[in-house]
Amino acid sequence: MPSIDRRSFNEPDEVYPTDDGSRTELISIGDNMVMRSVMKPGWSWEQYIKPMGDDPSCPMEHREVILSGRIRYLMDDGTEVIGQAGDYLEISPGHLAWVLGDEPCVTIDW
Hints:
Layout: E1 14-17, E2 23-29, E3 32-39, H1 45-48, E4 62-68, E5 70-75, E6 80-84, E7 88-91, E8 95-100, E9 105-109
Antiparallel strand pairs: 1-2, 2-3, 3-9, 4-7, 4-9, 5-6, 5-8
């Protein structure tokens, strides 16, 4: 039987804030999880996420759409990409990230 499940980032299942006011919100339906990250200007993976674990770079794979702002990704092999609003990215584990400019970077990631 067809169905539609609806969730809203206005009522996330989990919220992970950082000291600079950035945050990641998670919602899930069944086995599927989607994240919305709002990263403030100056946010970096090394400063706000790395201290929570033992990994030298992000161990996660990302599929994301950038809704606003700009972000720089640097892979462990030296490959660099700057993403901006409207971009879709597939990012392998082993990267660092920094928000560029004076606008927050908002991403949807699954």
